[in-house]
Design goal:
554 residues, alpha+beta, six-stranded mixed β-sheet, 12 helices, 27% helix
């Protein structure tokens, strides 16, 4: 099924039941400090001493200590004896609700009440209070986005954030959408130079979140929604810390929360505490490990996040597995055809339902269709738009577990002479493939050669007429080691002497010329290699293609 994807994701029907603020509601002085009842509620909960015992024993989350109810401020609690009882925590909840009920038109009363309720896990109460918001409509949308996301309803939350940001104060919108803490190297340098508000920065952010969407087949983008929630919570957190402790949030804390979320682990380090978001709490790195400036063809992910990486663990699904795959590009007239396979045998699923997705950008070409195979190594070919694409297979198991294969794909060259990608094919097939369909049926689920002494590749040459002679050159190159010799055994039945580059001529069979190659790889050591193929036409035009593959391991 092919469909166009508009600028906004489809909202779930339940969103329609959430009330919105009346037209003409007040604007928001979002930079002002907290005052009045909500300030007193927060100070009373976080500052009062519940014990006369003077002994100081640090609360530690990894020991199971729970001071203020498991919220972000637990690491400030220095004595186990100060831990709030269930009755005291319930009193805090009721005081937050009471303050919000008394001031539904006060932006910061409602926001701090919703934020506090979400912190202590009362997410349904948080949604209910956000629904009662009567401040500026865009502010109420942001507050509802926070509540919905912390309740595990990220698709609806994303819609609320989009709506809220469209009407928000531009300076606040720039602060909430800022992604500089998530960028490395030249990407970060380039992004910092972009003015905000401005279309160039908006375009950069949209592209970044398109590539960072954890699952393309799910509505919305929960990683982006998590980012906006973290940024909005930091804004509210700054006011909370100044109201309660008369302290400002440290820049390092701001960076850590943006990258990994609020701290959920800590330990004493001299007179200070070392805090972090645990690897369990921020397990996955969904943002690309490659630089956006390197182009979509260089796209690379390192899904497992270390303590120092950007990270996020979804509440609505998981565990998340990254699986290898193989994608090959072919021509069919003016259209692009992708041959796609994924190695789902590595995940503990039993014949999982899978989806194939090709996305041409945040608002571009989009196709989502079922994978026509029931085994753990599905392979198929499908037509797509000839534009830069994200190509993915996503599989869903029981208990919320998911697996994904994702690659960046550029269109083929548009010259008079063009080569397809070499498609790696199962060397155990009885015959070399004679057509694209045979090659796709037998394509390897990933570009890794295991325990075999032979590699089979299939490719197509486009742009020649029947009978025209072409010269074909083939070489194998090890990563960082130059050209290799003594690895070519046969080329579609032709013998070849060992040489850095093997060259031969053959006539084209038509405008699309299929070619199958069999290479001896028994002598190759484990590592990464490039299969390089170059074709020269009778008029001197040259086309080339490369297939990166690995030998050994898994």
């Amino acid at each position: 099924m092919t469909r166009a994807r508009g600028p906004l994701f489809l909202a779930l029907a339940a969103t329609a039941s959430i009330a919105t603020a009346p037209a003409g509601a007040q604007e928001v002085a979002w930079e002002r400090e907290l005052r009045g009842d909500i300030r007193n509620v927060l100070r009373n909960h976080y500052l009062r001493d519940l014990s006369s015992d003077s002994r100081s024993i640090d609360c530690l989350a990894e020991r199971g200590d729970n001071c203020f109810g498991g919220d972000h401020e637990d690491w400030f609690c220095r004595r186990v004896f100060d831990c709030r009882t269930p009755a005291v925590r319930f009193q805090f909840v009721m005081e937050l609700i009471g303050a919000a009920d008394d001031g539904p038109d006060d932006p910061y009363v409602v926001a701090q009440a919703v934020y506090g309720l979400a912190r202590v896990g009362r997410t349904l109460n948080a949604i209910d209070q956000a629904r009662r918001c009567r401040a500026a409509e865009w502010w109420c949308d942001l507050v509802m986005g926070l509540a919905l996301h912390r309740a595990g309803r990220s698709a609806q939350a994303g819609e609320r954030y989009r709506s809220g940001l469209q009407g928000a104060d531009p300076e606040l919108a720039c602060r909430l959408t800022d992604i500089r803490e998530l960028l490395d190297g030249s990407d970060g340098d380039f992004y910092r130079r972009l003015p905000c508000p401005g279309p160039e920065r908006t375009d950069f952010e949209e592209r970044f979140w398109w590539l960072s969407d954890p699952l393309l087949s799910r509505p919305g983008n929960d990683r982006r929604t998590e980012h906006l929630t973290r940024r909005f919570e930091l804004l509210l957190h700054e006011r909370l810390r100044r109201a309660v402790y008369n302290r400002r949030t440290l820049p390092t804390y701001h960076i850590d929360v943006t990258r990994r979320g609020h701290p959920d682990s800590w330990r004493p380090r001299g007179r200070d505490l070392e805090t972090w978001k645990s690897e369990r709490g921020a397990r996955y790195r969904f943002t690309p490990a490659s630089l956006l400036g390197d182009g979509i063809e260089a796209l690379r992910y390192e899904l497992e996040a270390s303590r120092w990486d950007e990270g996020f663990t979804p509440t609505e699904y998981g565990t998340v597995f990254e699986v290898p795959g193989q994608v090959g590009r072919f021509k069919d007239g003016d259209s692009l055809v992708l041959a796609v396979a994924a190695d789902l045998d590595a995940v503990p699923f039993s014949a999982p339902p899978s989806r194939f997705i090709a996305s041409g950008g945040p608002n571009g070409f989009f196709v989502d269709e079922g994978v026509p195979a029931a085994d753990l190594s599905p392979s198929f070919a499908t037509g797509v738009a000839a534009v830069p694409l994200l190509a993915a297979i996503e599989a869903f198991g029981r208990g919320g577990a998911v697996a994904r294969m994702r690659q960046g794909v550029m269109p083929l060259d548009t010259g008079a002479l063009v080569l397809s990608d070499p498609l790696l094919v199962d060397p155990l097939l009885p015959e070399l493939p004679e057509s694209r369909a045979e090659a796709v049926d037998g394509m390897l689920p990933q570009t890794r050669i295991g325990s075999t002494n032979e590699m089979v590749a299939y490719l197509e040459v486009y742009g020649l007429q029947d009978g025209q002679m072409m010269q074909v050159s083939l070489a194998l190159e090890r990563e960082g080691a130059g050209m290799l010799t003594r690895v070519v055994r046969s080329l579609s039945g032709r013998s070849a002497d060992p040489a850095p580059t093997v060259t031969w001529t053959e006539p084209a069979s038509g405008p699309t010329h299929p070619m199958a190659l069999s290479l001896d790889v028994e002598a190759l050591e484990d590592g990464n290699y490039d299969l390089k193929i170059e074709v020269t036409g009778p008029d001197g035009s040259v086309a080339s293609t490369v297939r990166r593959f690995a030998v050994g391991g898994r």
